[in-house]
Design goal:
By secondary structure, the protein is mainly alpha-helical. Helix content is about 75%, strand content about 0%.
Length: about 350
């Protein structure tokens, strides 16, 4: 009975959340809807990174996949008029190729831990410098603006935010489905075994190279998709905002702060970081330049130190501890219906 009640309450929570998502664009001012769209897109990107991070494959190079996924369809549209519906798959393919070129030799040569993190960090910076160096094509550090044609499904451009809100919700839900499929799939045990001890995993018959490449390719592809739709939404790309070390660290910190081991953890991290960034920016405005970023960084560091499982992970841990403690309290509580002793005086 309690399990059925728990399942009903779980489904009820999802139903309420879905109802809120449906009603949100009708009850939200344009500015806040703009923030919600960005939160959903970045939540998808953070979820894509967590596919690797939760198994110990810490990548600081997802800014590279994000940048490639954003720039390729935008450049193909501006210079060749190619619809983003074809440009986005090409950007994803380029990101996957980049992931294979970097990931395969690293995994083959057993580059793990902080060495792997440094390699991916260098990859992110290489993509950033390449985008800046190709200023005649990409606009360099000045940025790159896509050609606007107004409302067009062919160009994937919509002045009305409602269209991109629906796309962002669909994208976010698709990311959750992929995360859940990997979490519930048979490959999860293999990835967890690899993260604990690669030699032991290989000894029991796990194809270490295949499993690591599989999760890396999926993560890179999803990140590129998120970068492509983010670029289509904002219509302006800058190497500093969609690639490089800063973006890669933003992805890592936000996913960890929310809870990399939980389905909704990266989404909570997106809500926290983007709301905090925007709130501090509006609060300080042009006064105390750099104060908002300083406070943002301090809060993230404190969150990671005192809540290493993230916000969602910490809340789930508290709930589990309460569930364990409740039966113990009930067992130790004196019974009100205890029968009197039958022993003779």
């Amino acid at each position: 009975m309690s399990r059925n009640r728990m399942n009903f309450s779980h489904l009820g929570g999802w139903a309420v959340g879905l109802a809120v998502l449906i009603a949100l664009p009708f009850a939200t001012p344009p500015y806040f809807l703009h923030l919600v769209i960005q939160i959903l897109i970045w939540a998808f990107i953070y979820t894509a990174w967590s596919l690797m991070g939760r198994f110990g494959f810490v990548s600081f190079g997802h800014g590279a996949f994000l940048g490639v996924g954003a720039y390729v369809p935008a450049l193909l549209w501006n210079y060749y008029g190619l619809t983003p519906w074809l440009g986005i798959p090409l950007g994803v393919a380029a990101s996957v190729l980049l992931a294979i070129v970097v990931g395969y030799p690293c995994f083959r040569r057993r580059v793990v831990g902080h060495y792997f993190a440094l390699v991916t960090l260098a990859l992110s910076q290489v993509v950033l410098l390449s985008l800046v160096a190709a200023r005649d094509i990409t606009g360099g550090s000045l940025g790159f603006t896509q050609k606007a044609v107004g409302h067009s499904w062919y160009a994937l451009q919509f002045p009305e935010k409602g269209y991109f809100y629906v796309i962002a919700v669909a994208l976010w839900l698709a990311g959750l489905v992929v995360w859940r499929a990997i979490d519930r799939g048979i490959g999860r045990e293999a990835l967890e075994a690899i993260s604990e001890d690669e030699d032991a995993a290989a000894a029991v018959g796990i194809d270490v190279m295949r499993e690591k490449m599989r999760v890396t390719i999926i993560s890179a592809a999803l990140t590129a998709v998120g970068g492509a739709f983010y670029g289509q939404y904002v219509m302006y790309l800058n190497p500093e905002t969609v690639s490089g070390i800063a973006v890669s660290l933003q992805i890592v910190f936000a996913a960890i702060a929310g809870g990399v081991y939980s389905l909704l953890g990266p989404s909570v991290g997106s809500l926290l970081t983007l709301s905090l960034t925007e709130g501090l920016r509006v609060w300080f405005g042009t006064d105390y330049i750099g104060a908002a970023n300083t406070i943002y960084g301090i809060l993230l560091v404190l969150c990671i130190i005192f809540m290493p499982q993230g916000i969602v992970g910490s809340l789930q841990g508290m709930q589990r501890r309460r569930a364990v403690a409740k039966p113990l309290v009930n067992a130790n509580r004196p019974s009100a219906t205890r029968e009197p002793s039958s022993a003779a005086p």
